[in-house]
Amino acid sequence: MAESGTSVSPDGDHSGGDRPRLDRQRILEAGAVFIEEHGVRQLSMRRLGAELDVEAMSLYRYVPSREDLLDGIVESVVDELYSDPEVYVEPRHGWQDYLLRLAHGLRRLAMKHPQVFPLIATRPAEAPWVRPPLRSLRWVESFLRAMTNAGFSNEQAVEAYRAFSSFLIGNLLLEVAALGADIGPVEDPEPSPSRRADLTNYPLLQELQGLLSEDRSKQEFDAALDALLDRLDSQLT
Amino acid sequence: MAESGTSVSPDGDHSGGDRPRLDRQRILEAGAVFIEEHGVRQLSMRRLGAELDVEAMSLYRYVPSREDLLDGIVESVVDELYSDPEVYVEPRHGWQDYLLRLAHGLRRLAMKHPQVFPLIATRPAEAPWVRPPLRSLRWVESFLRAMTNAGFSNEQAVEAYRAFSSFLIGNLLLEVAALGADIGPVEDPEPSPSRRADLTNYPLLQELQGLLSEDRSKQEFDAALDALLDRLDSQLT
DNA sequence: ATGCTTTGCTTACATCGTAAGCACGGTTAC
DNA sequence: GTAACCGTGCTTACGATGTAAGCAAAGCAT
């Protein structure tokens, strides 16, 4: 082992290598990648440090705690929404187009980060009414303005906001769960035969297992989203 | 400290007391209570053991691991649904009544166990298509039979099942989140001023904060549930 | 009595999050 | 020059966690 005093490379660098210098954003991104690869449960400060060629404690220079690290990862992932060119913070073609784009943008986000998404959905927000999956004051403001500008009353806009959030959480959470089967805190290497289903006493289940496993999520998402928009539209009168 | 060899009470009991004997169900129930009182994050084998006047390792006689303990708690909580007299496993007054009762039963369950419910929602299921919050083959079978008996095609029944699950997860998860603000793995003793919202740049938010915090969850749940049932009904033709 | 099974306890270990402080190099002030 | 500082990452250390392994006592069957 090399002593800490002597640098591997002769230049001034601390530990001779092309290590690009630590900073908070780099840590958060590495964290998101790590979670996507190994699951939240596997993410420890030590392991994330190792991923960045750095000791665990060095991370604490930029991240106050593991909890804050997870919050930061969630935030940085949700912030990707701002750079989605298909999603407008300011409505351009009416509220329905706005909601459609927002919903699809979030679905894309969930599909891109299936392991992180449950965190987006379940981490406490800054205020109880800043709901997942938007999680940011700016989006809530944007949403409410889009709706009130379109003629919704304040009450209706707020109700629409809650209905929209619930819709997204339910659909996307179950969709990513079906994807990885590892939603939430577990990381089971083997499917564990005791958890394998025994369908002997459930004839209808047996018959419909094919249909149940079939992935029609995109169509169903769109259909349900359409129904939601219709429902909101009918309140506009 | 008393030696381990000498019993406190003279009778044959291992540690002289009226400790009612350990068994798996007792552990699971104590776990559910503990989570409701202190949150999932605080639940450790040692602390749960202490709650039952027992060493941590004694629990392993009945529960293979902490993960399995959580699964067991979830399962035992969900099983309460069977003893809800308002909910019928076999439909009695048509599919709409069946779904209404089921949805309301689950909502009651969520309200009764707001801390456990996120686990119900996010723990991996025995098969990817056994969705939360039902989580049991028996309920899925019951659901599908109710729908197909009512005239839904197999495809429609499966689609209804997914729509219904998504609806419940979304609504109930956000509802319990608003309740405890401690959904998921965090346990923050203090609201931490850095996480307190600053509404300066969000005028509409400021104006609507009252409405946003207002609790109309029951009405909104019922309204959305009604819309869902209507949507399903319209597919019956 | 003898042995088997059930139950709970004890000990031990690797791993975790993180508090505290150190060592190095770069920067700035004289 | 050199002296004070500061930003960065490393080291050490502590208490808590999940759990493997084995022990001891009690109940039961023979």
Describe the protein's architecture and organization.
The structure is a homodimer of 237-residue chains. The first copy, chain A, has 237 residues and is mostly helical. Chain A has helices spanning 24-38, 45-51, 56-59, 66-78, 94-112, 117-122, 137-149, 154-180, 203-213, 217-234. The radius of gyration of chain A is 22 Å and the shape is flat. The model of chain A is unreliable at 1-17 and 182-195 (pLDDT under 50). The interface between A and B is large, with 68 and 68 residues. Chain A binds a DNA duplex (30 and 30 nucleotides) through residues 4-5, 12-15, 21-22, 44-46, 54-58, 60-61, 65-66.
Chain-wise SSE layout:
The structure is a homodimer of 237-residue chains.
Chain A: H1 24-38, H2 45-51, H3 56-59, H4 66-78, H5 94-112, H6 117-122, H7 137-149, H8 154-180, H9 203-213, H10 217-234
Chain A binds a DNA duplex (30 and 30 nucleotides) through residues 4-5, 12-15, 21-22, 44-46, 54-58, 60-61, 65-66.
Please give the oligomerization state of what you see. homodimer
Estimate percent helicity of chain A: 55-70%
Let me know the number of strands of chain A.
Answer: 0
What radius of gyration of chain A results from the CA coordinates?
22 Å
Largest sheet of chain A: none
Order of secondary-structure elements of chain A = HHHHHHHHHH
What is the residue-averaged pLDDT of chain A? 86
* Distance linking N and C termini of chain A: 75 Å
Global geometry of chain A: flat
Largest interface: A-B, 68 and 68 residues
User: Spans of chain A of 5+ residues with little confidence (pLDDT < 50)?
Assistant: 1-17, 182-195
Structural class of chain A, please?
mainly alpha
Q: Given the structure, what is the number of helices of chain A?
A: 10
- Strand proportion of chain A: under 5%
